[in-house]
Amino acid sequence: MSLSNAWGAGTVTLIERKSEFDYLENLFSETDSGNGRIALVNGAVASGKTELLRTFAEQRAREGAVVLTVTGDRDRGSRAYGSLQQLAGDLPLPQARTQELTRLIAWPSNGNDLSSPLRSFDIANIVLELALELSEKAPLLITVDDAQHVDASSMECLLHIANHTRSARIMLLMAELVHGRSVHPSYRIELVRQVNFRRLGLAPLSEEGVSQLLAQHLDPDAVARLTAGCHTITRGNPLLVRALIEDQLDWPEPGPDTRPVVGDAFRHAVLTCLRRSGPEVLALACVVSVLGPDSTVDRLGRLVHRKPADVERALQALRTVGFLNGNDFRDPSFREAVIDCMEPADLAKLHAMAARVLHADEAGADQVAHHLIAAGGEPDDWTVEQLLQAAKEGLGADNAGRAVEYLEHALAGRADGPQGATLRTLLLRAELRAGPATADRHLTRLCEHERAGELDTEQSVFLLHCLLWAGRHQEAEPILDRLGREYPHGQAHPSSALTNVGHFLRHAHPALSKRWAEVSGAPAGEAAAPARWPATASEALITVLGGADETGSASTAESVLQATPLDDLTIEPVWSALRTLIYADRLETASRWCDALLAESKARGVAWWQAVFSACEADIALRYGELSKASSYARGAIAAVGAEGWGVAIGIPLAVLVRVATVIGDHEAVREYLRQPVPEEMYRSGYCLPYLRARGRYCLANGRVEAALADFQRCRELMEAWGFEAPTLAPWRIDAAEAHLRLGNVDKARELAKEQLDHPRFRSPRVRGASMRMLAATTDVSSRLTMLKETVEVLHASGDRLELAQALFDLSRTHQAMKQFAKARMVLLRARRLGQACRLEMTPPRGSGEPKPAPAAEPVAARAIQGKAVAEVPAAATQNKQMLSILTSSEYRVATLASFGYTNQEISTKLHVTPSTVEQHLTKVFRKLKVSKRTDLPVDLQLDAGRVGSAVGGRRSADQRTAEPGLPRRRSQPDTA
Fold it and tell me: Whole-model pTM?
């Protein structure tokens, strides 16, 4: 529906034009009294000039004035007297009076001289004579619309009339486009020279004016809702406002948004304004729609082949009509409208030209690449070079999606050869950020590049890592062999990429480590060169896994983390460094770094990094006994990139999920996790060990002891074959000892537990406490009691809440067996409290005379623990803080040990004080806590008790750790990390 049809051809109510209309009426009154006037109305395209002239002329005609109308036409601008023919045909005079004028105007079409001064003078005089004749009978109003398009010959005649209107009843009313290019540019000067000349400028509608215009067609609610939005988009241009009104009327169900619907009517109105502004303005608008915020006068001039002054004039015209803010469109709707009117080939050509112009101005590679992508077509060498540079910058700015777009377009023109290999390798890196599964599609083609010798050493090593991760050993092994043959012997420090192959294989894919050593001839224990962080991180991890120098390795891992900014090429050494800290049992340090790295990964939006660090968080949380957190992190790690994205390392997050579900007794969840397909090649990688151990623990919990023992034995075989010794990775001796104990093989269980306890390496409290607990289970009751008390102390310091809860449970059963029912009940309450905090599924000790706990302390099923039981822990922590405030440190230590079931003599021995001192402290504790005996002591004394440890409370919070002085900082990271 056109605009004219929308509002009809009847009388139009002028909005915010009353003062201009009144001014024109005053000028016409002066004209009627014999003082002719000349008025020039100028304004932007579609600002209401034509409407004002038409309304004014109709009013004068109704009052008896003679009205003659001339309208400039761009198509007739080069045709002599083209505009004057309209006036001659409308003269209300006998044909005999206008016959000569008509003949002279038509004469040029017969091929006569158009430039004859005599001929022009005759026509101008005849027109003036006829005009004066008409003005004698009634005032004469001559309106000239679009004066800038009136041909030069017709304008000369009009100016001739203007020169003789001072004492005649003739008013010459002209309207022109501001900033428009005129066919007769000097006419404005001629008009200004006349003393009876007046100029009027038409301003855009105000917001109130827009509201009035909307109110003529829309309901009041819509007017109130849309006025501000309409004014913001149109800047008060009446034609654009009316177009928006039509779009609102055409929209079936307008929503509640304050932004009006922008539809076809608005787009057509935009194009109408541009076409009426002239071809120069339309051409410039097309270029602005392509350059956008990169538009400058110089760049626009080079693209439209115009001088800066001409460009600035066209820009000013676009600003005046309300299209531009500065040098760019103020609203995306204008850009969309302009682009819609362009032919695809023309648009592509403009984008290609814009890319060249921006590159010449040394604009950013991303700016250039944006236009190259939009230009489409098959890229040439220059285009590929620019796209490659932009992709590298995009990855550096964490805009992997944009980098992928650039590289895929570049590959459309250079899919083969070394350049295609480089592009595809970088594309693989970019897509890895979203997860290895999405990038897997490039591996086959990259293998073809590698076989053709089109990959350099670093690219081949990168491909090798990706293939091994995906479990594609059949394709990886030939590459491994070729890289091994390239290994430079005799060099002090060979290529860092080749050096790291051996280190990486030893901890990630140890089954291939021997093959690499044979092919490359590289020493098995080759040291990493200084500052080569990938090899250094791998070497530190290998050292820890081998059971040697965990302290030095942990220090090396921290150095790697401090010195290595996180990016696509460093994610592997950073992950290795974190795992080194975890397996070295430096959980506080590992947790600090992991928190910072995960936060950075989320801030930069890299899904793959988030998955890796979430898996580390899950492992740390599990070791602290934070089961809900461990499960949440593990699920997040898998969800971030999908199970397929984890490749052969899927065993890491799955192992956490299986362990957590086993501990809380959710056996259906365990079965679901174990049904998750895993690559067969996982069992040739170091990532299988946590999975095998978790599966064995599940079998053990379900009474399938033989199956569990088989998994633990498999862990032993693999670790021995690969040179792994760290029990923090998979404590197969402790697990196998428990399985043998279930089978009644007490001697074998004792042998394995003692072997782990006496191992010269890995003397951490976590490993030592677990070994002692298992060894205690193989001894007689009296010896077991002493050993379990020591075990509780050791585990209390380790922070392992799971193992501590089980040790307390064993200790309670031992007290029960020794008929110490009060102590058994007290330790059992503590075990239950700890179990609730960990979401453990606890079973009370059985036997005659079993202590009868209060109802609130009854064992709780795993799925029910989430409610009241867990809610009790914060309350206990609050109670503990209150006790800390009223007990001295000495009293607190004595009360804590007493609550663990220690006798006064045992407490005095541990604290190196006399038994009487212990008795005095306990007396004060009983009085302050208002209890009468030690079995009434609170079971939550250790919660957040910094004076004696924080085992039950687990690790400190992130806020507590961040507040510590000396917190390590990552290079290139903000201090708040």
Answer: 0.75
